[in-house]
Amino acid sequence: MSVRIKVHNLSFRYGAMEVLRGIDFMVQPGDFVGIIGPNGSGKSTLLKNMAALLTPSAGEIILNGKDLRRWPRRSLARQLALVGQERSAGFNFLVEDVVAMGRYPYQERFSSPKEADRRAVERAMHLTGCYHLRERELFSLSGGERQRVILARALAQETPCLLLDEPTSFLDLGYQVELLELLQSLNREEGLTIIVVMHDLNLASRYCGRLLMLSQGKIYACGMPEEVLTRDHIRSVYRTEVMIDPHPLDGSPQIIPFAAGAALRQNHGCPKVHIIGGGGSATPLINELVLAGVPLSAGVLTVGDSDWATARRFGLEMVEETPFAPISSARHQDNLALIKGAAAVVLAPLFIGPGNLLNLEAAATALEEKKPVYLINEPPVEERDFTGGRGIELYRALIEKGAQLITRAELGQIARPEEREGN
Amino acid sequence: MRGKRLLFFTVMLVLAIAAVLWATGTGAIRISPGAVARVFWDLLGGGLTPGDTAQTIIWQVRFPRVILGFLVGAALAAAGAAFQGLLQNPLADAYTLGVSSGAALGATAAILLLPETGLSFTFLVPLFGFCGALLALFIVYQMGRVGGRLPVVTVLLAGVVISSFFSAMISLAMIFAGEQMRSVFFWLVGGLSQRGWTYVAIIIPYLLIGLALLVYLARDLNIILLGEEEALSLGVEVERVKKIVLVAASLITAGAVSVSGMIGFIGLIVPHAMRILIGPDHRFLYPAAMLGGGIFLVAADTFARTVISPAEVPVGIITAFLGAPFFIYLLRRHREKYRF
Prior knowledge:
The complex is a heterodimer.
Chain A: E1 5-14, E2 17-27, E3 32-36, H1 43-50, E4 58-63, E5 66-67, H2 73-76, E6 80-83, H3 95-100, H4 115-127, H5 143-156, E7 161-165, H6 173-189, E8 193-197, H7 201-207, E9 210-215, E10 218-223, H8 225-228, H9 231-238, E11 240-246, E12 253-260, E13 273-276, H10 283-291, E14 296-302, H11 306-313, E15 317-321, H12 329-340, E16 344-347, H13 357-368, E17 373-376, H14 390-400, E18 404-406, H15 417-422
Parallel strand pairs in A: 3-8, 3-9, 6-7, 7-8, 13-14, 13-16, 14-15, 16-17, 17-18
Antiparallel strand pairs in A: 1-2, 1-4, 4-5, 9-10, 11-12
Chain B: H1 2-25, H2 33-46, H3 53-87, H4 99-113, H5 119-144, H6 152-175, H7 181-189, H8 197-216, H9 218-225, H10 228-233, H11 238-260, H12 266-278, H13 282-306, H14 315-334
Helix pairs in contact in B: 1-2, 1-3, 1-13, 3-8, 3-11, 3-12, 3-13, 4-5, 4-6, 4-7, 4-11, 5-6, 5-8, 5-11, 8-11, 12-13, 12-14, 13-14
């Protein structure tokens, strides 16, 4: 029991409106695919095409080597089960009767349920944890319980593949996670192939093995969650600025939105600024400049350091050094290369030790290359030096060579050169 | 629930038999239910004994009327259950959909246009009625359809419009009917008086075919009620099922309207009452509605012919008088739980 679905050059139009264009992808047996994308991107339409509820206007969907259009409905119902979005308002059926409807594609009319039917229904109710609800009426259940009953019906269909259209939409957090963990275990333990349309990117990222990101009816990105859920993709598809952190448990990218896309436009086209920091000294500066819409690069930062985490969260171009190792000359050269590509350099009030003196050297090199260098000296360098004076010396040399001391409050002006010149 | 269903059907069956015996015994000459049962027993055993008055009254006059009442009640209720279920609307029935008016218009046309030719004429009336019902249904379907779907609101609006329009046409036809107006009028008002075994024979094929189709598709309809897309993905041929159910319910309605005219209320309230009692599963709802509708119309008709005896009250008045309070009682008792 396995399914292989190949979507080939699929297009779909509602009347004159083209909803899907040139969709190409494969689903392998055992996949857990999440279809994501903004409202109106064609997610549900794609799923409905795959469930043969809609017929492609061009291209084809091949299920196990045969065009979907050539599958008789009844046989198809033994391959694909659907948990759709529409929920009718009325009709108070018993839970057990609803789940038993899943056996429709296997039953002859008027024949009483066979042993296999009974087993499938009971198993589906046990798997979804609604066995104890079997004598209850549908309308006495909560939204989460009702969704589980509908899922149980789909499982009673005993198909190798399950299609779900935003199954968590109207559920609270508890039920959302519960449902997705259930799907995950069905996928891992029963080998069920799952294709699910999701709105919640973080849950999709955590539970889906592969994501398909749609935008305006086309595939914008496809792959592992970390390949698809990038800051750039989300900015252009959802028009939203986000930071991305790995999930502490499994490393799946987790998204924290912080600004509407348009909000950062005021500094669009602003030249890049390079930030030298470490130990958390650069984090408030990075936060502020990112919010102001200033493109940034950073270096040299130590892997695992909180500045490094901040830079990664915003997807900044940066130079990384191994923890507990001094900055190597190779990384120093990389840092200088980034500085070359920037219009200005900001030196954060970092703690200076023998391992990161090269970061001060990098600022000095920037000055020699006539790049403006801004220093933030709060707390003062005397309190931050752990090199027995060598750091203080280098810092003072920077000031002598033309680095400007600014306060945190003046940082925003870097992003608006015309104001600075006006002053 | 399963035990509850068994109990429910046992009670309903007993009630149905009791209602038939009681109704058959009730009239100008009162015959006790026991005596009625004995007469049936004799009839089953040896046929008619010539000269037995009780037997003649029961077999020739009352029993066909009671049976016809039961069949018409069963037909209207089953068709109502199908219309309500299919359109997922508590207000849908053969009247609100215009199907009854269509059947009435067809039957009126038959009465007025065809010269009366005895038996074949009696059989042609329901056929014309069915054509009228289908015509109404077709127009409502075309008017109510929006982009391949059948939204309830537009269907009901179209139904009400067609219903009024056809009723107006019937009234107009009656004005031009001349001396035949009387026969059309008495037929339209609805009722079961002067209906012998011929009418039972007329309605039976319509009922049998229509009900067979409804029961055949009961499981499919259940699945459709929980969502049409999922029903498709379960392998149900949704559009075909919907069309067949509509035609079958119209067939049943046409049969009923053709023999008894317009009897309202049964198709609307009996399905609701039964749904409150045993749930929405159409595999059980259809038989329940048939029993309930049959019992209800038999009881109502018995009242209609005895309450101001020897005159008769049109049975439609009785169905409304009995039905409304009963329905309100059920609704009040189950208001919190009832979700259609």
